[in-house]
Design a protein that fits this description.
The complex is a heterodimer. By secondary structure, chain A is mainly alpha-helical. Chain A contains 23 helices and nine strands. In chain A, the strands form four sheets. Chain A has a two-stranded antiparallel ribbon. A two-stranded parallel sheet of chain A has the order 3-4. Chain A has a two-stranded antiparallel ribbon with strand order 5-6. In chain A, helix 2 runs antiparallel to helix 5, helix 2 runs parallel beside helix 6 and helix 6 packs antiparallel against helix 7. The longest helix of chain A has 33 residues. Helix content of chain B is 8%, strand content 44%. The two termini of chain B are 31 Å apart. Classes of the chains: A mainly alpha, B mainly beta. The interface between A and B is large, with 111 and 93 residues.
């Protein structure tokens, strides 16, 4: 028995002495393969950017990135343009932080700990630019099946990058310029270099997107794409801003070129002014509707992608708290503070309208009523909840932006969804019209078009006004009212010189009511001059860059 | 009896006389029984030896022995795990002996990586806790029972909610990433929290790198080895343990009552330049009888006498071929917040372990199999936006809990005439929509009771099968295949509710369900060989291990549940009627990331006469988490020990110094706990859409159209070079056993450096996409641990023990790989729009609190003027007496981020614990306590951005005029005096009497042959807490990130529990 076991044991040892190295060998040899795993649901850069379809998905990614500057913003370009400009005050709730006041008055002492007002915006723009840079980088490795689509996609991609850099450089002036994605700590570029990229990219879009790529006739399906005409109009806008604000020029970027692009848009016949000004804006054309009644709600609104829209940023009411950022997130800011009075939906009461601006409209200008909610004259003061709203409002002026006011139904339910189920804070989705035909007409006039007088007349006639003789001053004045609250006026002021802008924006003290108590808005021209009208660069980014990024003067 | 002893004495005298007469008295047979003092059971195989001779014997299956010994000789009784006892042979021939269990025996073995080792040969720093010590604490999780018993292992609750996990850090926080230790249950990874404490034989914590290095890449944060109970040869033993307890909150936060609240609200108004409120005109704050409402929401949230119960049945036994242990357990615990319906935990455990000798002395096989089923319901215990309890702190006392008027649901019914009402969905709870005090107040209790509809069921089947072959003496080949299959199911329901204009769901009811399953498999093969060459003893271990994990999740949700089926009971996806995602229809299913590991390891041990010893280990680990070329990591260790007490020069002190050993060790271990595919740049295509066209305002289909308009972009920078995080540790320790084994001392000092952290360090925004996981940053933990244990008896029956332990740790971060050397904490955590308040930064502890330092309160205008004229800044735009002086650290006339400083951190500098116990004639008593010193707590029960939020009564000490307070500022409607500063930071030192137990074994007086033990006991858990902290619980493991602790935004406190229980053994 003992021997038996002993023999068995010996045999087993022998077996093991063969088995052990064998199994080890097997494991070592296959362990490299054994350790290879891959995701079953997610692509990565080694297997994406291969097909034309991948390129289309990546282009949507670029549009999404661009839209996130408004659908997932910090301050948002729109809000910044309005708060800094002469049209609006910062306002917001009476107990809110004073960050909006710091921006409005170009004075960090208003809220000295607010050193990162624009951090999210700064990040969103670079995220959008990154997506464009990646698509441009991978362009050569994509198997293009259709050369026409290749041209269009890449044209749009370049245009989007230009649009984002144009916003960024206008706001911050001194920004890092990345045309290839990098993790490096890039210092700020000379603005001229940034504009060079902007003009090159727009030129690329003009040259590559055919005029018939996205015809207006098919707006129902293609509205929102950057067209050749949009790129041309933006080229003119960038030309006017760069030459105006910096008083410099870039080789090959000429007034003649800018004008010819405007004329090209006009002569294309694709666009026309919407006959009634108010119909451009949902809140100005809306009716008092019951929940579910879209027809009454929208009233005479000319609709998204109407004949006048050259470029709009598109939103949908699909914002949620699960990562979808598709809605217009700044719209809620300017709604009346916590006060829905049909058709005007509730908001947070920021961007109250400067009464001095309202007072400057010419008599008979139909744009005034279409642009501004007049709280007293529209009877809102009698509404339930007005008192509470008023007491909670900072820098109440009696005037609120109408063009982008949120909408609600008769019972106060937010109208962001027709069935009334939408969230008033996050699901507003009015398209942001970035370039209107009227703008092209006035830019063409300003750039010295032979038809300058008729272009100006058209715009005035639509507003219900008599013709005036065309001149730079007349055009600039017209622009002010035509494009009020469209995030244009501030930049129009700046391109007439920082001194001029500072004079126009500064105020010795306009009476407002904060929390129902008397308050004054004082904005000093010196503060604006010190900052050259530029925004604060996020301190966190300066810290992260270890000082490679420099704060703008004055901030 | 007396007579007998008289006779005996007489005999002894006689014998001595005889001995004197004849020096050659022959040996006689002596017999007797050896039993254990612990349970009276016979000890099988105990050694009996005649001192100074080679004569020896061993006890049989009944504990009986026979030995030949001469009168006057001394018999030495010894048994592994028991204190040796000596008895002089007298005249009689029967000597029965009861041996005391030796809780600190050096002969005992402890569990080490892939094996066991005699305690006295250990060269690393490990701590063992016995299963019985864990079981008698009656905690839900074994980890909680270890609190205060294991120096160097910090165990903090992350919430008092039943079933919540614990935050465990061994020797300080080593990383901002995954910092929990590796848990191995019988060698296989598993969840220690759901383990039945009654199944545990022992828990061994490997604290130093040398002990843990054999686990290589998974061991950077230490290793916890759990060994479950196995059967023993002998008669089957049945045990039944049960307890039943009542839980209550130990301390509630005192909030302002109505009159105090109104005073403060008015004072705020006046201080902020507004008119005071006219409360007399507000109808909604008075009940129909005209009495002012005065709701204490905190009281309302807590439930009295929430119950806790546990029942456990165990059977062990075996014969010469097979042994087994099986158990069946059930436990449940109700939450003290809201009670069973909203906060509850239930668990069912089943386990069977057995071992079979297939061929005697050659081959044995066995298995350890367990099944756990848990059912959890819980309230939100997260940050300020996901914390159910927090609502109760902010809500004003001026509204009732229940509505006095219930309307039929139409809003038109509800008028401001009614003082309280709920017109929505038949809810009995008050809604504040028409409150003329504060519309947005809401109803935290109603909200909790209405909106907490969730249930998580989890089942884990885990087990291993092993075979062990001993082909020749000293060689053991072992192969273990282990698998853990877990599956879980979640179900949730959102009802209609409406408590305020901010807190409502008027859209639709919805149900969601999800299921997960995962399987991990591990195959381990080891060969162990022990041999001796003269006095040199060697042991070698070689092994390899392969493991993999895979799993899937599926989930679905649906909205608009059909009538009659729109409640929690019927909240299943099939009852939803929605047809579009817009209406809440959703589905998802995805695989979990596959992960795989392959490892090879070895250990070589040597000792000379158990006096000098060296152990060295090496492990190579390959992981699928990293790119080819960066997959394998090498983790070495070496450790040495010197038993000084074996040396000749120690003989002079050997009378009191039984044992003294010095240990030194060094090793490296790794960490690979990151998400999958970090070496690639993933292309994200979810949440990325752009809808072209003019569907516009009236379009309700936009969501579905959106679905097909998806885009994509690379969502993260790839880091192909990402690889192991490494923890390197040096340890020096001393073990001593003194005064006849009564006193045991362990001391350890360590320096642990964790480097090449796997971190997602922030990148510049210009990078434009998600930050990669990189290797960078390090942290040094230095610390000291001690453990003292004293066991002794007074007289024959009174046994007692005292244990004290403590650990000091210092944590300091270095070389964070970002341009600014900082890893930033989350924002928006303490109050609305709150800035970052904690960070990891070079030169500071991980997760230190970063904020303004305050210099008291401005008492008058003159002070303000002087402050400013001295060049100091103020943060308040319109500063007034009563406002907080924030230190202008850099003296630049401005208060901003540059003035924020280190305000301490949430990790204790020193943790300690003590135990005290005695038993006397069947009566037992014990006390366990644990404490911590040096940690700070950031407390913010109030969202200061909301002017109407209630305060704790601390605000009554506010500044109201010159000299009234130099700490708490005047009240205003803004939060300008409540920007994150040291005013939020409190000392968190505490000493907690965690358990006090008193028991009695009735079997002592009620002798019967069936029942060996019948112990009844009462226990108080969390009986007393000594602390200066004014929150509800000073033990706050919660942080808004894993690497920060001590953030109290409304912490679910641990309950105080009184329980009664019984332990029965047959």
């Amino acid at each position: 028995m003992r021997t038996n076991i002993f023999i068995k044991a010996k045999r087993l040892v022998k077996v093991f002495s063969y088995l052990l190295p064998l199994t080890s060998y097997l494991f070592i040899s296959c362990s490299e393969n054994y350790l290879d795993v891959e995701s079953k649901t997610e692509s990565n850069t080694s297997n994406f950017y291969k097909t034309q379809n991948d390129a289309y998905r990546a282009l949507i990614g670029c549009y999404d990135g661009w839209r996130q500057t408004s659908s997932n913003p910090g301050f948002a370009f729109y809000v910044a343009s309005e708060v800094m400009g002469a049209e609006c005050f910062g306002a917001t709730g009476n107990t809110d932080g004073r960050g909006y006041q710091a921006v409005d008055r170009f004075d960090i002492a208003q809220s000295s700990s607010d050193l990162n007002l624009y951090e999210a915006d700064w990040a969103r723009y670079y995220q959008g630019i990154y997506r464009c840079n990646e698509l441009i980088k991978y362009e050569p490795q994509i198997e293009w099946k259709n050369e026409a689509l290749h041209e269009i996609y890449m044209g749009e991609c370049h245009a989007l990058r230009a649009i984002m850099y144009f916003d960024l450089v206008r706001m911050f002036g001194n920004i890092p310029l990345l045309t290839v994605a990098t993790e490096e700590n890039v210092p700020q570029a000379d603005p001229a270099e940034v504009y060079q990229v902007i003009f090159d990219d727009l030129q690329y879009a003009i040259d590559h997107i055919p005029a018939n790529a996205y015809p207006k006739a098919d707006a129902a399906n293609n509205d929102g794409h950057v067209t050749k005409y949009a790129a041309e109009a933006l080229y003119a806008r960038a030309y006017l801003y760069y030459t105006g604000y910096y008083g410099a020029s870039i080789e090959g970027v000429t007034k003649e070129k800018a004008l010819s692009y405007c004329e090209d848009v006009i002569s294309s016949g694709e666009y026309a002014l919407v006959p009634e000004y108010k119909n451009l804006w949902p809140a100005a054309s809306a009716g008092i509707a019951e929940v579910g009644d879209a027809i009454t709600l929208l009233g005479s609104y000319a609709g998204d992608g109407n004949s006048e829209t050259i470029l709009a940023m598109k939103f949908t009411n699909t914002q949620d708290y699960n990562g979808n950022n598709d809605s217009n997130r700044w719209q809620v800011m300017l709604g009346m503070r916590n006060l829905p009075v049909a058709p005007y939906g509730r908001g947070w009461g920021a961007l109250t309208v400067n009464p001095q601006f309202v007072n400057q409209y010419e008599a008979g200008d139909t744009r005034k009523k279409a642009s501004v909610i007049d709280i007293v004259n529209e009877g809102i003061v009698n509404a339930d909840g007005f008192e509470a709203s008023f007491k909670d409002q900072r820098e109440y002026t009696g005037y609120v932006i109408k063009k982008y006011s949120p909408l609600c139904f008769a019972d106060g339910t937010s109208a962001v969804k027709i069935d009334g189920s939408g969230g008033f804070q996050e699901q507003n989705h009015q398209d942001w019209v970035i370039m209107r035909y009227a703008d092209v007409l006035l830019m063409a006039a300003e750039l010295g078009s032979g038809s300058a007088q008729s272009y100006l007349d058209k715009v005035r006639a639509r507003a219900g006004l008599q013709p005036v003789a065309v001149s730079k001053a007349a055009i600039m004045k017209e622009r002010k009212f035509e494009f009020a609250f469209e995030a244009i006026n501030y930049w129009d002021l700046l391109r007439q010189g920082v001194d001029y802008a500072a004079q126009q924006i500064a105020t010795n003290g306009i009476d407002v009511l904060s929390g129902g108590n008397a308050d004054k808005v004082v904005i000093s021209a010196e503060n604006i001059l010190a900052k050259k009208g530029l925004c604060q660069i996020p301190q966190n980014q300066i810290i992260l860059s270890n000082g490679v990024l420099k704060q703008n003067a004055g901030w | 009896m007396q007579k007998n002893s008289f006779k005996q004495s007489l005999l002894i005298v006689l014998l001595f006389t005889m001995q004197a007469l004849s020096a050659t008295l022959s040996a006689k047979p002596v017999n007797g029984k050896v039993t254990s003092a612990t349970d009276g059971e016979p000890l099988i195989g105990a050694t009996v030896q005649v001192q100074g001779t080679k004569t020896g014997s061993v006890t049989d299956l009944d504990g009986n022995y026979t030995i030949n010994a001469e009168q006057g000789q001394t018999l030495v009784f010894s048994y592994v795990g028991y204190l040796t006892k000596t008895v002089k042979v007298g005249g009689g021939s029967t000597i029965d002996v009861t041996l005391e269990e030796d809780r600190q025996s050096l002969e005992e073995v402890v569990v080490i990586g892939y094996g066991v080792q005699k305690k006295k040969l250990l060269t690393g720093a490990t701590t063992q806790v016995k299963g019985e010590d864990i079981a008698k604490m009656n905690t839900t999780s074994p980890l909680q029972a270890m609190q205060g018993q294991t120096p160097g292992v910090s165990i903090q609750s992350t919430s008092g909610q039943p079933g919540s996990g614990l935050k465990v850090q061994i020797r300080g926080l080593g990383t901002v990433g995954s910092s929990g230790p590796l848990y191995l249950i019988d060698g296989i990874g598993g969840d220690i929290n759901t383990l039945n404490p009654a199944d545990i034989e022992s828990i061994d914590v490997l604290k130093d790198a040398a002990s843990a290095a054999i686990y290589g890449a998974q061991a950077a944060n230490g290793v916890v080895l759990v060994t479950t109970k196995n059967g023993r040869e002998g008669k089957a033993e049945i045990s039944f343990d049960a307890y039943y307890g009542w839980e209550n909150v130990a301390r509630k936060a005192p909030m302002l009552n109505s009159s105090e609240y109104m005073t403060i609200m008015n004072e705020q108004q006046i201080n902020s330049g507004n008119q005071p409120y006219d409360f007399t005109k507000m109808k909604s704050i008075y009940d129909p009888q005209g009495n002012l409402y005065d709701t204490n929401w905190i009281d309302q949230m807590f439930k009295d006498n929430a119950k806790q119960e546990s029942y456990n049945l165990g059977i062990t036994g075996g014969n010469k071929v097979s042994t087994f242990a099986l158990s069946l357990g059930y436990m449940s615990q109700e939450g003290i917040v809201g009670g069973k319906d909203v906060s509850n935990y239930e668990r069912y455990n089943f386990r069977i372990n057995s071992e079979h000798k297939i061929i005697d002395k050659l081959l044995k096989v066995g298995e350890q199999v367990s099944y756990v089923y848990t059912k959890t319901t819980g309230i939100g215990v997260g940050n300020q936006y996901n914390n159910t309890l927090r609502g109760a702190f902010g809500t004003s006392p001026l509204a009732p809990v229940y509505a006095t008027n219930i309307f039929d649901g139409s809003q038109a019914d509800a008028g401001s005439e009614a003082s309280s009402y709920n017109g929505f969905y038949g809810s009995p709870y008050n809604a504040t929509d028409y409150s003329d005090w504060y519309l947005y107040d809401g109803n935290p209790y109603g909200s909790m009771m209405t909106n907490t509809n969730n249930e998580n069921k989890g089942a884990v089947f885990s087990g291993n099968v092993y075979a062990e072959l001993t082909p020749m003496k000293g060689l053991t080949l072992r192969s273990v295949f282990g698998a853990v299959y877990n599956t879980s199911e979640y179900r949730g329901f959102t009802p209609f509710y409406h408590f305020s204009p901010y807190n409502y769901n008027d859209t639709r009811t919805s149900a969601n369900q999800s299921m997960n399953h995962g399987l991990s498999m591990t195959w381990t093969n080891t060969a162990q060989y022990n041999w001796n060459v003269a006095d040199h003893a060697f042991s070698a271990l070689l092994g390899m291990e392969a493991s993999r994990y895979e799993g899937t999740s599926v989930g679905a949700s649906n909205g608009y549940l059909k009538e009659g089926f729109d409640d929690w009971k019927h909240a299943y996806v099939n009852n939803g009627t929605a047809t579009s995602t817009d209406d809440g229809l959703g589905a998802g299913g995805s695989p979990h990331g596959d992960s795989r590991n392959v490892s090879y390891f070895g250990r070589l041990g040597w000792n000379w006469k158990e006096t000098y010893m060296i152990n060295a280990t090496l492990r190579a680990d390959g992981s699928s988490k990293f790119a080819s070329g960066h997959r394998f990591g090498w983790f070495p260790s070496v450790s040495a020990g010197w038993t000084i007490s074996n040396e000749k020069f120690m003989q002079s002190v050997s009378s009191w110094m039984d044992f003294l050993k010095l240990r030194v060790s060094w090793g490296q271990v790794g960490n690979q706990n990151i998400s999958d595919y970090q070496y690639l740049a993933p292309v994200k295509n979810t949440n990325t859409h752009y809808l072209f066209g003019t569907s516009g305002y009236d379009d309700t289909e936009s969501v579905s159209v959106l679905g097909t308009n998806w885009g994509a972009y690379p969502s993260r920078v790839a880091n192909p070079d990402v690889t192991w995080e490494t923890s390197e540790q040096f340890n020096i320790g001393l073990d001593a056993r003194l005064i006849g084994g009564h006193l045991n001392v362990n001391l350890d000092y360590y320096i642990k450096t964790t480097k090449d952290w796997l971190v997602t360090a922030p990148v510049l925004a210009t990078v434009g996409t998600g930050a990669p996981t990189i290797n960078g940053g390090d942290v040094k933990n230095k610390g000291f641990e001690f453990n003292l244990a004293w066991n002794d008896m007074i007289g024959k029956e009174f046994r007692y023990n005292i244990g004290v332990n403590g650990a000091y740790n210092k944590n300091e971060v270095g070389s964070i790989p970002t341009d600014d050397g900082i890893i930033h904490g989350a924002t928006n955590q303490l109050y609305d729009n709150a800035p970052e308040f904690y960070r990891a930064q070079n030169g500071h502890a991980i997760g230190y609190f970063w904020g303004y330092k305050t210099a008291g309160i401005f008492q008058n205008q003159q002070e303000i003027d002087e402050w400013i004229s001295n060049g100091n800044g103020v943060l308040q735009a319109d500063v007034k007496p009563g406002d907080v002086k924030y230190y202008d650290i850099n003296h630049d006339g401005q208060i901003n981020d540059d003035d924020k400083v280190d305000l301490g951190n949430g990790m204790p500098d020193f943790t300690y614990g003590f135990t005290l116990g005695f038993d006397w004639k069947g009566l037992d008593f014990s006390v366990q306590a644990s404490g911590a010193v040096g940690q700070k707590i950031v407390q913010t029960y109030r969202n200061h951005a909301n002017a109407q939020a209630n305060y704790t009564t601390e605000i009554l000490q506010r500044w109201t005029g010159e000299g009234t307070s130099n700490k708490i500022p005047r009240v205003t409607t803004t939060n300008i005096n409540w920007q994150f500063s040291d005013l939020f930071v409190h000392d968190g030192d505490y000493l907690r009497i965690s358990t006090v137990t008193l028991g009695y074994d009735l079997a002592r007086i009620w002798k019967n042959k069936y029942c060996k033990q019948l112990r009844l006991y009462v226990q108080a858990q969390n009986l007393l807490t000594f602390t200066k902290y004014k929150g509800m619980d000073p033990e706050i493991g919660y942080g808004t990130d894993g690497w920060v602790s001590g953030v109290d935004v409304g912490y679910y406190p641990r309950p105080r529990t009184i329980l009664v229980g019984a332990n029965v053994k047959f």
